[in-house]
Write a structure and sequence with these properties.
By secondary structure, the chain is α/β, with parallel strands linked by helices. It has helices at 14-18, 20-27, 64-75, 96-103, 120-125, 142-153, 163-168, 201-219, 221-236; strands at 2-7, 32-37, 50-51, 61-62, 83-93, 107-112, 117-118, 129-132, 186-187, 190-191. Bound molecules: adenine.
Length: 237
């Protein structure tokens, strides 16, 4: 998979692409993450990327010219046509099913905004999709792009040491994940649940499922509601 990131701050991504699971996936060649600075596609001597909004008001707005030029150069480099995603609090809210869908794409191009936002024509003419990582406002799209990249890359075959790990993740099945324990068996008087030490795989499976369900009911009943809706839609279809 290839992921192009267009940003004014490519250096922000250095720790992400060189550390932990994403770093390892890059090293193994599972994903190619290519960063491009809009500033390299400016045409004036000041290398301007933003300007004051027409109509007044505070903040600066990312200009069409460098963004269109950067996207056209990067997307037209002969590789597969990328799905162009704009990171914005106005976008569709990211969830695990969207992540799984995007992990199946051959190439993504992520557009990070900064300052007050993008010129609206970037939104309407360039973006295939607009994605938000939650109902809060970041100073720029970069942290949102990093969240998206991390969530996608860990789903790529071979990215996680244990291939089952992603299948059991929270949300993978529309539920929060069951609790985990490791050594010691008892810590400050807190014992590991007996069933996990029993070696009975069927019972462990049942216990984990019931823990996932009760935890989801207690903390995120909205997820159970959504799961019920999906199931009833499947039955009636
Ligand atoms: N840019 C600023 N805030 C954002 C958010 N919540 N999600 C995606 N991109 C953003």
């Amino acid at each position: 998979m290839r992921i192009d990131v267009l940003t004014l701050f490519p250096e922000m991504f250095t720790p992400l692409v060189s550390t932990s699971i994403v770093g390892r996936a890059v090293q193994r060649g599972l994903v190619d993450i290519v960063r491009t600075n809009y500033r390299d596609y400016t045409s004036d001597s000041h290398r301007s990327v933003d300007d004051k909004p027409f109509g007044g008001g505070g903040g600066m707005v990312l200009m069409c010219e460098p963004v269109f030029a950067a996207v056209e150069a990067v997307a037209g480099d002969g590789g597969p046509e990328p799905l162009k995603i704009l990171l914005t609090p106005q976008g569709q809210r990211l969830d695990q099913s969207m992540v799984a869908e995007l992990a199946g794409e051959p190439r993504l191009l992520l557009l990070c905004g900064h300052y007050e936002g993008f010129d609206e024509r970037i939104r309407t003419e360039l973006a295939d999709r607009q994605i938000s990582i939650g109902d809060y406002v970041l100073s720029g799209g970069e942290p949102a792009a990093m969240v998206l990249i991390d969530a996608i890359v860990r789903l790529l075959p071979g990215a996680l040491g244990d291939q089952n790990a992603a299948r059991n993740d929270s949300f993978a099945d529309g539920l929060l994940e069951y609790p985990h324990y490791t050594r010691p068996r008892e810590f400050r008087g807190l014992a590991v649940p007996e069933v996990l030490l029993s070696g009975h795989h069927r019972e462990i499976e049942t216990w984990r499922r019931s823990q996932a369900l009760s935890r989801t009911q207690a903390r995120r009943p909205d997820l159970l509601e959504q799961k019920r809706d999906r199931m009833s839609r499947t039955i009636t279809e």
